[in-house]
């Protein structure tokens, strides 16, 4: 298996801009549950109640350094989607390799909505989303030269 990425915590100063100070030390870096797992589980940094129809934006406290030519795709944990219809608001999260160098240190946020019929609690330290690394290609006439500076949604602000 080719090793192409590594997870890190964002700095404490960056996390404290959006997260709870008490949770920084408890942030768990994503990891696979089994040797055969494709997905890296993301763990909730705090306990969050999500009522029916409610949306939550979770500051994971995590960033990832990815080799060029690879992307991290984020999905809800299968069991939460199946049992509660918990869905990512952007359907699939895309973490580009250059996001690591963004002004916000590449802090990964996950925004989800409970589209089901019963409330749920995302418990601190429990897996709630998963990320899968995928290799991608570019066109032969690609001429992208711009450099990312901002965080989420910044690549279309030129």
Describe the protein:
The structure is a single chain. The protein has 158 residues and is mainly β. Helices cover 8% and strands 34% of the residues. The chain has a single domain, classed as Distorted Sandwich (Deoxyuridine 5'-Triphosphate Nucleotidohydrolase, Chain A). It has helices spanning 12-16, 78-84; strands at residues 5-9, 40-43, 48-50, 55-59, 62-66, 70-76, 86-88, 93-95, 109-114, 120-122, 127-135. The radius of gyration is 16 Å and the shape is globular. It starts with a strand and ends in a 23-residue tail after the last strand.
Structure characteristics:
about 160 residues, Deoxyuridine 5'-Triphosphate Nucleotidohydrolase, Chain A, 3-stranded antiparallel beta sheet, 11 strands, about 10% helix, about 35% strand, globular
């Amino acid at each position: 298996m080719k090793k192409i990425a590594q997870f890190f915590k964002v700095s404490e100063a960056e996390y404290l801009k959006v997260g709870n100070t008490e949770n920084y030390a408890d942030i768990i870096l994503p990891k696979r549950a089994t040797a055969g797992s494709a997905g890296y589980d993301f763990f909730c940094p705090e306990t969050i109640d999500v009522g029916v129809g409610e949306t939550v934006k979770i500051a994971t406290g995590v960033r990832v350094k990815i080799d060029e030519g690879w992307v991290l795709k984020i999905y809800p944990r299968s069991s939460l989607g199946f049992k509660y219809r918990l869905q990512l608001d952007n359907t699939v999260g895309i973490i580009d390799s250059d996001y690591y160098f963004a002004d916000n240190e590449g802090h990964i946020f996950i925004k989800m909505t409970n589209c089901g019929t019963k409330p749920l609690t995302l418990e601190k330290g429990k897996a709630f989303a998963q990320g899968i690394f995928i290799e991608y290609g570019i066109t032969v006439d690609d001429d992208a030269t711009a450099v990312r500076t901002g965080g989420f949604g910044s690549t279309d602000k030129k």
